[in-house]
Amino acid sequence: MSDAVSDFSWAGPPPPPLPRATAWGTIAAYVRLGLAILTTVVLLSIYLVFKGIERVIPAFRARERVQRLWARTMGRLVGLSVTVTGEPMPHGGALVANHSSWSDIFVLVGAARMTFVSKAEVRAWPVVGWIAAVCGTVFVERKRSAAKAQEAEMRARMIAGERLLFFPEGTSTDNRRVLHFRSTLFAALTAPELRDVAWVQPVSVVYRTNPATTLPDTFYGWWGDMEFGPHVWSLLTRSFGGEAEVVFHDPIRVADMPDRKKLAQESWRAVHDGVVSRLPHHRHGHEDAYGDRED
Question: Are 123 and 109 in contact (CB under 8 A)?
Answer without folding.
Answer: no
